[in-house]
Amino acid sequence: MQQGRPLKRCSSGCPSLHRPRLLSFGNGVRGPPPIRVAMPASAAAGASSISAVHQLVDDPSSVSIIGAGVVLELPPTTLLPQLSENHQPPPTISEHVAIAVANNVVDATGAHGALVPVTSEASTQDTTTAVPTATVTAPTDAESGVAGAKEAVSAEPFSLSHSSPLAGGRLDVVHWREGRMLRIWTPPGFSLSESSRSAYPVMYLNDGQNLFGDRPTLSGQSWHAAEAAAGLVNAGALPPFVIVGIDHSGNMRSYDYLPYPPGNANGYRLDAESWPGGGVDAYLRAVVDEILPYAERTYGVSSEPALRGFGGSSFGGICALCAALRHPGVFGSLLVESPSLWFAEERLLKHDLPDFIGPWPARVFVAMGSKEYSGIRKVKEPEFDAKLVSYANELAALLESRGLVRGQGLQVVIEEGATHTEAAWAERLSSALGFLGLHWWRRVMAHRRGQLYFTVPRKLRAGQPAVLFFNQACSVVLADRPRDSIAMVYGFNADWSVGGGRVEMVPAVGLTALAKELTAAASPSPPSVPPEPAGATAAETPSSPSPSPPPSSSSLSSSLSPSLSVNDATDNFDAASASHWLQASFTVPPEAYEMHLAFTDGGGGNWDNNAGANFYARVKMGMTAEQRSHTVEQAMAEGPAWGDVQAIAHKRAGSMYFTTPEVLVAGQPAVLYVNRRQVRGLEHNPNLRVHFGFNNWQSGCQEIGLKPTSLWRGENIDWWSTTMTVPSDASELSFVLTDSHGIWDNNYGNNYVCQVKRPRELDGVAKRSEPRGVESVESMPHAAGTLHILALTKRQGGSAATRANKWTEEKRVRVWTPPGFDPQRPPPGGYPVLVMQDGQNMFEDWLAHQGVSWRVGYTASDLVTRGELPPFVVVAVDSAGAMRSLNYLPYPPGKGAGGFRGDAERWPGGGLEAYMTRLVEEIMPLIQQRFAVSSDPAKVAFGGGSFAGVAALYAAMHYPHVFGCVLAESPSLWIAEGRFLQDMRMHRGMLPERLFLGCGTREYSATRDHDREDVDALLLSYCQEAASILESQGMRGGRLQFLVEEGAGHHELAWQWRLTGAMRFLFSAWWDE
Predict the structure, then answer these.
(1) Helices 947-958 and 979-986 sit at what angle, rounded to 10 degrees?
(2) Phi-psi region for residue 525, left (φ > 0), alpha (ψ -120 to 50) or beta?
(3) Which residues pair with 674 in a beta bridge?
(4) Which residues fall within 8 angstroms of residue 889, CB to CB, at 6 or more apart?
(5) Confidence of residue 499 (pLDDT cuts 50, 70, 90)
(6) Which residue of 64, 384, 400, 847 has the fewest C-beta atoms within 10 A of its own C-beta?
(7) How far apart are CA 1051 and CA 283, in angstroms?
(8) pLDDT single digits (tens) 262-280
(9) Taking the C-alpha atoms of 571, 575, 576 and 577 in order, what is their torsion angle to the nearest 10 degrees?
(10) Pro residues bias: where (predicted)?
């Protein structure tokens, strides 16, 4: 093919020849375009043919894929005339775009995929703004071909394309500009609500297509940035951080990343001679004005320069240097990999960088290989390889002259044999990130002073790796023991029944490295010398010419001081105390819901086990995709129990039964699981049967035998199950248990009841069941906030169910919102919420049945306005009047030991589980939707007093996956002659993170006209026994507060008096959420 005759596609899409032409600009510069050669590549042999082409060409980056063909871009032999810097002005941006269009680098519409500047009407300064336009889309992990490109072009900016797990975290691919993506990796244990407590450090990196997966890259090799970052976090070298990858713009990449056209590097890079440049200002403005705010708003990353880095490789490394020049003070660290400092006749290196006084980022990582040029080309040019190394050394010397110190704020790596490829940059990424992010520990430790231990992530995740950091100096028992003797002993779930073991603790990796660096910075150091190539020795004589020595720091600027580098973390860090921190790495089992641990010195026999209580950490149980996809049919088949059935069984270990799905669906199959060990009178009976019916026994009545399951068994846990199909018109399931020989467990005559929700709509879209609605709302000012009184609509069901619901269902909910409440702008994860029972007695004295309310609104408002607690919402559900005991008790109350409560003998009970189901499945979703409250158990509390205090303890055992905090005031543990305490002893499941238990010494006598000290002592002993049981089951180490108030009785005034302290204890952790 004749040189100078580039291929061009005709209207039919086929390549066709056109006349060679020279491009002419207003300044008279003329030159031939590069030659573009197209060749077909079949779909089946595409990968192999492209690989073969890579081996035949000098520069693999000159190979691109168009449709079903491979296109080579070959440099012309005719060189442009060499012009002096002051000869005439360089081509304008529009002229560079015209070059790209004319030379078929991009088409006329694709040229606008780069970011072009426009003049702001509000200012006469040279400000720029980024305009979204079309561009070429590189295929992502989930996108390929024309369809993926069309989707990328048409998508809304900052809309999520797809998300997938990666290296223990998640990779979100987000549409940015038309055809360009943001690839955002969040670390293991990432939590948006956690970021509101302490924002995540973040690294913004160019060339997002090359960072995470091999498929989107042209070379077939990515940086594997997620694996590198996760490895550093899991090893304790860095705290958790986020990576934001920003896609390049395809063939207009050089335009976005360079301040000037690249030129040809004195003939070494003829392929780049006609490439455009000059758009870096517009690109960086878009990064600062669009991407940074989006990432901070959506992913909770830090806006502090000290916790924010920027970087890239090749032209992307030049872009990182330009970010420091154009936007000083925005980024605190720079990653500059293999910077193409040869571009534009070294103008950036020789003029722009020396002219920039500062301030520079506090930490800069610069790296270069010794075979950057020759290592990827057939033609060997060792002199240009040496020149590129000398550029890196010259850049390092310049940075030193601006106050950066090698080994502290500056790290320079010259790697022997390394080339200009993603593989080389991937190899160095771990050390680069480990250096750049080391100072992030200063911010982390600013929040950890005086703590005995903490974990990364702060909230452990089931099935995820974690690191525990232990401050030996804070241990009273182990402070003076040898560091190398300390070990952590741990286990998971109640009675340490899952996983666990012993792990020897080692010095904290990241903290030790930071302390070493700060110690070196505080002591005099000899003058720095340029780094030798890795692997070279003084005796070795390289075959290629040696790189020219860099200029000395003093020759550049001897008067500049380290104050010219800024944006380092300012938090105090005691380097001496860092030696006290040890770490241990472990993996949380997938079935874990809590962790128990203690520390020991091994053979010395000394233990720090929280004074015998052991230490505790809550584990968040996330549902995997496999678990979420587990169907009822799979559960019915039983086999090995796994997925959400096993997860439900663990969190409902203290319950007598549960169903799959957890809320039955009309017209759908279901499975009923019964814990045989909790069936009264049938605990060891192998002939266990269930008699059930729907809609108050009006339809579908059957009696079926239950069979053993393969679900996990333990002490007092033995799950049996049966299958059923819920009728299409069902609104509730009622069942009793029997052996068909006269022994029955019918919940004390109340039956066991499960709610049934409506099925999916006909269009297949799943819609949440809303059996309750809001009939009216009355709002009024109250306690500096607002009190909303919601009247609920009647529950739906058959005529018999409707009549029964008239006496038992919840009719009114009172919601107090704090000062400044805004449902449109809630805190991350929603407002914390306290759910109280006996709503009539919560807010207003005139409505309370004894003339005194809990005054919950005033107490909450006082704590919030004084800054002791974060703003939170209080939801109070009115009781059902005469049927209050039915809803709040798991069985009828009886008359108490010795008959001291004969008045309660005929009161109903046994409807507590049905009430909790209505509360969790009907009322709470309604409140979450209207008032933007959280559904995270760590930010949801349950409370009540007397019978509702029993309900609170029941919620602690059966619903800790819903309520992370529980307030139980004066619980009526005398019911059923103390049977509830027996149920508490049998419990072996999860418990809430915190529980407050309060009572008085005159619970009986203070509200009656006669004294019964024996009954007062009995009621107090019940509460003391309950506290003892909770402690024995793991509620230790600050999780349980048991308060006995001298002389206090069983009434709202006593509960009001204790409420302030209870809220402080239970809800202070909400600041951390």
Answers:
(1) 20
(2) beta
(3) 657, 720
(4) 909, 910, 911, 912, 947, 950, 951, 975
(5) confident
(6) 847
(7) 67
(8) 999 888 899 999 999 999 9
(9) 50
(10) 524-533
